[in-house]
Recover the amino acids of this structure.
């Protein structure tokens, strides 16, 4: 055993001398660099080292050296795993090492060191000690940067790097470059750049490097030929680098195969979208510009000029939070207009709350709209949230608002004025932000005279009045409406109608539709049930007697008819194509009716 130990000691001394010789070489290169010697006992885990190591790690002389795992943690965080792996391999397998790394000493100072280590084994081949040196290279920044560059930078990046001499031959490549071309590094050294560039000539290569020198760097896309002859698309960035007064040519190369494939997929998708968009545009059956609104405006079928003007007004008011009052006969689509106003507004992410005021029991109308507290009246077994609370930040549609009880009208007026109310039986004032859209087929001005509707509430509601035309004044829309309802009922009934006889359309156009669009919808539905391939409207479905409203005595619908015709004539009362001529009445008589019904021609066109 003693003889073996002596051999081990002699071997250690030889290896230490070899390490010292390497240290001396480093000292000559780096002008008296600081170098220390250390030894690690694997069994006892004890470390001894020279004073220079204390100084390198910023530790006070004489302190017990740190444990091995603590020493490893002096390395920079990104290098700790690498250092630990190398040292553990030396302990396990006796592999000697020489590593360059960055450490942070006990005082927080960053140093760059070269550490070497050799293993000592016993007669069983087991590693019992590690010994080595550590050399501080921090004071020689230029050489340290060169070492760091060569040891880390080139090999750590994923892009390939080529270095060329003046004859444009490879003098160095990193592993990523070799992998990219499927060569071994030594196979590439000495080859010319044009050997891997199938589309390049020496003349072109010289020209590119000349341009690179003029611009400082140059990027371009080309193909590289791999060892097996296949080609891959690459993006190259040429650089001219000066190092210690010498000029180097360097190319950074990136494989862009995936990018090219993605570009093809994207282009294919864009082409498909273009085709689909073109097809969609061809199949689109309606057009709409900033003034002229065509067929199917938010479920509203309108081709009549007056209706289109009305839809334009709906677009304008929808962008605001103004209160809207829709005044029209039963069946003219007041709810559709209300829904269109809401859907075109910035509140459309919330639900339109609809209330049929005519269907509310008088004693429960206030509770339904504004809610109630528990015990506020008989049957109030819990708190109820009213429609206005539910409609906060949205719109509420008050259909048949003229049927509200007078006491509820007062509370509605307060909401319009102040945006607040209390629940029935409650004291808490509730603030809401609600856009109100009201509708009625009732003559509210007459209701005011009869003390059935509050005048102040009327003026609060009548901020932006809308007058849907009765169907008899927009008969040009009937063919489009019939087509709309046919499609609706075909989908619902699973039944197809292929044509509409002229006799059927004539009947529909001659009738005056006192029930308006709703009546037309009902008649089309009934006709669909009894028809086979052609739409047949039986005589019993439409009354034989019709009214000629152009020569009527302006009975109960006189006001609305006058408004519709004034819209059509742009407010012109007398003269050729004036409202009086269209209605077949004397202009003075019409002026008298306009005053009687308190029709403000300015409001019609606001």
């Amino acid at each position: 055993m003693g003889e073996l130990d002596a051999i081990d000691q002699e071997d250690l001394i030889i290896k230490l001398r070899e390490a010292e010789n390497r240290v001396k070489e480093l000292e000559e290169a780096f002008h008296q660099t600081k170098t220390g010697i250390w030894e690690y006992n694997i069994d006892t885990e004890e470390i001894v080292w020279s004073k220079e190591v204390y100084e390198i790690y910023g530790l006070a002389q004489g302190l017990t050296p740190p444990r091995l795992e603590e020493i490893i943690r002096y390395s920079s965080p990104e290098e700790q795993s690498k250092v630990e792996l190398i040292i553990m391999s030396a302990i396990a397998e006796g592999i000697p090492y020489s590593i360059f790394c960055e450490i942070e000493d006990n005082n927080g100072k960053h140093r760059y060191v070269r550490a070497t280590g050799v293993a000592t084994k016993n007669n069983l081949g087991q590693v019992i000690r590690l010994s080595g040196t550590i050399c501080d290279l921090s004071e020689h920044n230029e050489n340290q940067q060169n070492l760091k560059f060569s040891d880390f930078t080139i090999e750590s990046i994923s892009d390939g790097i080529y270095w060329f001499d003046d004859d444009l031959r490879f003098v160095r490549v990193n592993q990523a470059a070799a992998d990219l071309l499927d060569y071994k590094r030594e196979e590439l050294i000495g080859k010319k750049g044009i050997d891997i560039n199938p589309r390049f000539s020496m003349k072109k290569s010289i020209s590119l490097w000349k341009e690179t020198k003029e611009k400082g760097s140059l990027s371009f896309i080309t193909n590289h030929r791999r060892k097996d002859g296949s080609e891959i698309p690459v993006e190259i960035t040429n650089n001219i680098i000066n190092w210690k007064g010498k000029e180097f040519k360097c190319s950074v190369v990136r494989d862009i195969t995936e990018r090219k494939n993605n570009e093809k997929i994207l282009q294919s998708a864009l082409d498909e979208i273009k085709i689909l968009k073109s097809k969609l545009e061809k199949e689109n059956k309606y057009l709409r510009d900033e003034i002229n609104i065509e067929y199917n405006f938010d479920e509203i079928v309108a081709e009549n000029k007056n209706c289109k003007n009305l839809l334009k007004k709906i677009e304008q008011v929808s962008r605001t939070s103004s209160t809207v009052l829709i005044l029209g006969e039963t069946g003219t689509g007041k709810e559709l207009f209300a829904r269109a106003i809401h859907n075109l507004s910035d509140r459309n992410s919330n639900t339109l709350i609809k209330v049929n005021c005519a269907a509310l029991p008088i004693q429960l109308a206030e509770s339904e709209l504004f809610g109630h507290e528990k015990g506020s009246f008989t049957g109030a077994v819990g708190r109820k949230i009213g429609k206005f609370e539910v409609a906060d930040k949205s719109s509420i549609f008050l259909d048949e608002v003229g049927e509200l009880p007078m006491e509820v009208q007062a509370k509605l007026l307060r909401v319009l004025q102040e945006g607040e109310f209390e629940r029935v039986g409650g004291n808490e004032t509730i603030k809401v932000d609600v856009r109100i859209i009201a509708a009625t087929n009732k003559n509210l001005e007459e209701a005011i005279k009869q003390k059935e509707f509050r005048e102040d509430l009327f003026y609060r509601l009548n901020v932006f009045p809308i007058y849907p035309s009765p169907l008899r004044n927009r008969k040009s829309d009937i063919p489009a409406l019939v087509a709309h309802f046919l499609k609706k009922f075909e989908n619902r009934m699973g039944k197809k109608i292929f044509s509409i006889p002229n006799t059927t359309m004539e009947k529909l156009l001659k009738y005056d539709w006192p029930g308006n669009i709703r009546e037309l919808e009902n008649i089309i539905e009934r006709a669909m049930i009894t028809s086979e391939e052609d739409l047949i409207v039986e005589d019993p479905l439409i009354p034989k007697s019709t009214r000629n409203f152009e020569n009527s005595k302006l009975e109960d619908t006189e006001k609305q008819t006058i408004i519709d015709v004034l819209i059509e004539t742009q407010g012109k009362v007398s003269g050729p194509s004036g409202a009086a001529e269209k209605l077949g009445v004397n202009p003075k008589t019409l002026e008298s009716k306009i005053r009687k019904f308190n029709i403000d021609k300015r409001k019609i066109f606001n």
Observations:
- Residues 2-29 form the longest helix (28 residues).
- The CA atoms of residues 358 and 403 lie 5 Å apart.
